[in-house]
Amino acid sequence: YGMAVDPVRRQLWITLTATNRVVGFDISGAEPRPVADFASVRQPNSIAVDPESGTIYVAGTADGVLQIVTADDLG
Questions:
Q1: For residues 30 and 33, what is the distance between their CA atoms, to the nearest angstrom?
Q2: How many whole angstroms separate alpha carbon 29 and alpha carbon 39?
Q3: How many structural domains is the chain composed of?
């Protein structure tokens, strides 16, 4: 599992390696609130967020693939 924090948007992003998914939470309040859940590359073990743009980078170790998810992709 990998985790990344977006300090500008106050979001926490977590990779779910076993299910090949990424989940995002709003951490601006007292309790985390889910904001996104999407399919990712195989075995997403690393994740990073560009705080300026909000773009999320997910690296999959199974195939050596980098997934790039923009704010527009999340709707």
A1: 9
A2: 26
A3: 1
Question: Does the model's pTM come out above 0.85?
Answer: yes
Domain that holds residue 9: 3-74
Average pLDDT of every residue of the chain: 96
**Residue 59 three-state SS:** strand
- Strands of the sheet with 65-69, listed across from one edge: 44-49, 56-60, 65-69
The structure tokens listed for 37 are 């859940």
The answer to whether the CB of 9 falls within 8 A of the CB of 53 is no
- Rounded to an integer, what distance in angstroms lies between the CA atom of residue 57 and that of residue 7? 15
Tokens of 54: 């909000």
